[in-house]
Amino acid sequence: MTVACSENAPELIDSVGFSLSKRITKAGLKRMSENSLASKVRLGVGQRVGFGVADFGFNLYYTGLNLFLLYYYTDVLGIRPAVAGLIFAIPLFWDAVTDPAMGMIASRTRSRFGSYRPYILFGAIPLALSFVLMFAAPLLFPSAIVAVSAAAHILFRTCYTVVSVPYSAMSAKITQDSGERGALAGVRILFAATGGLFTVFVMLPFAARFGGGDLKVGFFYVSVVFAVVATALFMTTFKATRERVELTPGFRSAPADLWRFLSRNRALLLLTSAIVLGGMGGAIFGKALVYYVLYVAGLDISVTLALITLTASVTLGVPIWMAASRWLSKRMVWLLGAGLGMTAQLVLFAAPPATVGPFLVLLVMLGIGNAAFAVTFWSMLPDTVEYGQFRSGVRDEGLVFGLNQLALKAATGLGIGLLGFLLEAIGYVANEAQAPDTVQGLRLLSTLVPFACSFCAAALIAFYPVDKPLHARLVRAIDWRNRKRSLVPQTNDTP
Predict the structure, then answer these.
(1) Average pLDDT over every residue of 113-118
(2) Cα(10)–Cα(32) distance, integer angstroms
(3) I need a labelling partner for 46 at 20 to 30 A (CA). Which of 64, 252, 348, 439 fits?
(4) Is residue 437 a contact partner of residue 296, using CB atoms and an 8 Å limit?
């Protein structure tokens, strides 16, 4: 029996019968049972927390890098802003190779631990050492600060790829239920926001305290503490998780298959483009906020309080958007969050607050809006695996999450790199009073540039095609295809 599968009507698959003249192999039956379980399994609180807690560790690393490393390069090490921006931007060319490659390598890994969990186990310590090296290298080689900072940054990004891409991809193999994936994403982002909040709260003050006034030494000591904590959390996630979704028999994907998977996966292409734009806007605002508070706002507020307010608001927003996702589509949640954040950015530009209270309110609005972006794209992304699999016949969640990791890094790297160049273009001089034109430039960088990025991302995501009912039909259609491949004709041939 041959059945043509319509892209627009995957529910037709449910009406297709199976020939009784076929039999199912034992291996096929086992795999079908496991995949069926993965599509219906309800994860307990312990399993969700066990998966999500690793993102606290990842954000000890990445929030510290995103919020403070540019400041560390420019104001602590004394590197020119444009050169510091290059240190962020150049590794993007390396990420363009390593992120998709790591995704494909991980998805083809077969071990008793699964495809993705081994990289969390064995990659955690090298990642920790590379993070510490970013802050140790300038101390060890003070005569070559720019060169060793760039090399250490590239090494860290490579080690981060080895662990973070498999971790993210694992969510597509823990369950195939779109609702459960949304819950996993919400718990993950809750831990990510908490880790970011912790980093904002302790990194700069602890660096000043541990270093005895020498921030170079202080940042090094803080990096050691963060590395130890993150490694312990990664070990917890390794023990608490299990990969349930199995590949169909004989799965082998050639380069042409991967191109077919990508070219026919409109959902992934739209989401990846929106992630780059939205992530750029968030990266620019997050980094520019430090300069905005110091030189533009004219308010009696510290950088630490502003960053804590923004990050705490993301934590507050996660359960709000998780609850909203029960009644609204993921696409609508993204758009509502983007609208809230863009409103706050316009107010910051058009009517800057004259007192601390309204300024903090706007930061809360921005944080809650950013939470919608984080929750939705992490829960949308696994669904694009089945969308692409149905349309192309190829499944490669490692490639999907590798490309997503590249998109996030590209967004951050391009955003910070662009900010570094623009800071120099508007005449920014570290640790000095800024000229009026520079102050105006900082205000534009902090508001209208992130607004434009968020608007373009929302315009793209409005066309995202996958919702929960469609995804459920796609899973049923793929399950039927897998069953069909597992049917082996009876043969009456006798010697």
Answers:
(1) 88
(2) 19
(3) 64
(4) no
For 187-198, the pLDDT digits (tens) are: 888 888 788 878
**Cβ atoms of 453 and 164 closer than 8 Å:** no
Rounded to whole angstroms, the Cα distance separating 195 from 61 reads 9
Q: Above 70 in pLDDT, residue 398?
A: yes
Max CA pair span of the chain: 94
In sequence order, what are the beta bridge partners of 488? 23
Among residues 342, 384, 320, the alpha carbon closest in space to that of 189 is found at 320
CA distance 380 to 96: 22
Give me 256's structure tokens: 């042409």
Q: Where along the chain do its domains lie?
A: 46-245+256-481
Q: What torsion do the CA atoms of 288, 290, 295, 296 make, to the nearest 10 degrees?
A: 60
Sign of the CA dihedral running 84, 89, 93, 95: positive
Rounded CA separation 224/203 (Å): 12
**181, 175 Cβ separation under 8 angstroms:** yes
Helix 436-461 to helix 397-425 angle (10° resolution) is 160
- Round to whole Å and give the CA distance between 118 and 163: 9
What's the rounded mean pLDDT across residues 372-399? 84
**Dihedrals phi, psi of 234, to nearest 5 degrees:** -65, -40
C-alpha Rg value of the chain to the nearest Å: 24
Residue 268 · residue 461 · CB < 8 Å: no
CATH dotted code for 46-245+256-481? 1.20.1250.20
C-alpha closest to that of 478 among 9, 3, 10: 10
* CA of residue 117 relative to chain centroid, distance: 18
Question: Under a CB-based contact definition with an 8 Å cutoff, are residues 207 and 218 in contact?
Answer: yes
Compute the distance between CA of residue 473 and CA of residue 412 in angstroms, rounded to an integer.
Answer: 35
Alpha carbon 465 to chain centroid distance? 20
For 108, how many CA atoms within 13 A lie in the half-sphere containing its CB?
A: 12
Per-residue pLDDT averaged across 344-358, rounded?
89
